[in-house]
Amino acid sequence: MRYSYIYFSFVFILHIISVFFPSETFSYMLGILAFTMLMLSFGSASRLFKILGISFVIVGAIFFATTDLALLDIPPMLEANLSILTLLAVLPWMNSVVTAGRFDKLIQNLLRGNVQNLGALYQRSTTAMMSLTAFLNVSSATIAQDVLVENLKPIHKKVADKFIMMTTMRGYSLALPWSPLEVLLALSIFITGVKYAELLPWMIMITVFMFILDNVWGRLYFGKIDYPKDNQTIKEKQNSEIRPKIIQLIIALGSFLALVILLGNWFHLEFIFIVTILVLPFAACWAFAIRRSKSFWTIGWNKWKYSMNNMHNFIVLFVTLAFFTGSLNDSPALNLIQRPIILVADYPIVLLIMIQVLFMLMSMFGVHPVATMGVIGGISTMLIDILNPLSLAIILVTAGVSTVPIGTYGLVVTITSMSLRQSPYLITYYNLIYSLIFGTVGILVAYFVLG
Question: Where would you find the membrane-spanning parts of this chain (predicted)?
């Protein structure tokens, strides 16, 4: 599968072209190409995603048998989620400019700062994690954990592990509700059709509230534990190097958010498509501005090629999910699924709680929140009639993000578990209250938006 990236790139480029020149022929052809991608990827996908894929195909086939659709109607279904896959394909370029500009070193320096106790380090750690996760995603967790494991060696291992499990997982989750590069946010906008500019203020408000609440708790809980003075190594020279990096990061993030919003308002294109076509040129211009173009293209090419050759899990998930959703929408079974929703239609708060609980239960059994969101997307039309698009978007994002620190088999939890050699269930346990509060805040805000 060394050259999978060539074929995948071809399909994604055709998808981008089809947005500008839509046609039934294009849709049919892309569906066939998506099916070929699925066949190429299935053997290399992980066991969990194979199970999810097979489940979606089997259930989708049962739904399909109850419809009036013909087999020739299947290919157009399969291209429904290519926009999400195309977005995932370009994200490594943004990661690469951060690496080329050595912004990943910023988190290392910030975590070696002059603080007196673990309470102050807790705030610094969550801030650093949140800042860089917006660009680096999972990589930020591995960088932060490596630094913290080394710095906290003088601390009792149980305390140090608990600190790392909490601060890195929570800091990571705080970047996801508002980052335009986050798939959960992109997918919620894709399902509900709300504008990013309309959703962003609510996501920032929730993030700020959770950041303040969690950091107050962190200062109180860990504040009595002294931070080893041997690790307070940042000098004035290092501080003078950190400040420009922080300013550059803030300017880059602000510029990218502004461009996404402006282009969305000017050209009335879908949010996912805007982010997709913006990532590479923006990253290249950023690299040029900081005089790191050569290393950007070198790092970027290798990261992008590796990422493209290892997209099997997401290809299996999103192509089979497209078949499942397409079959469900035309099946009489949709009416059966809608009945419980009709029963609580007069009590939207109950529906919001049901959505949150569904996300949490599914995540604990290893189901990715993206898959759960895709399933809910199959009945989104009815949900929107009860909740309204903005309210549904808010609960989808917060419910999905709140499961990240407690998803026992999730990627970040797995990485943390391996790094600390601790049970993933312990990570879930330490972050369960945080996730419940995060989800509750999302429910309350979504309910408030209903008016």
Answer: 5-21, 27-45, 52-72, 84-103, 172-193, 199-217, 246-265, 271-290, 311-328, 340-359, 366-384, 390-415, 427-450
The Cα 111–Cα 387 span in angstroms is 42
Q: Which residue has the higher pLDDT, 424 or 279?
A: 279
Write the CB contacts of 348 (distance below 8 Å, at least 6 apart in sequence): 386, 387, 391, 447, 450
The pTM assigned to this predicted structure is 0.86
CB atoms within 10 A of CB 380: 22
Rounded CA separation 112/115 (Å): 8
| pLDDT value at residue 231 | 45
Closest CA to 126 of 186, 207, 183: 207
Count the residues in the chain.
451
Helix (H/G/I), strand (E/B), else coil: 327: helix
Count the neighbouring beta carbons within 10 Å of the beta carbon of residue 156: 10
Give residue 30's pLDDT: 95
Spatial separation of the C-alpha atoms in residues 58 and 299, rounded to whole Å: 41
The phi, psi pair for 270, rounded to 5°, reads -65, 145
Please tell me which residue, 385 or 281, carries the higher pLDDT value.
281
Q: Provide the token pair at 337.
A: 């699924």
Residue 226 DSSP SS3: strand
Token pair, residue 151, equals: 């710095």
Q: Which residue has the tokens 């009489």?
A: 332
User: Is the CB of residue 316 less than 8 Å from the CB of residue 53?
Assistant: yes
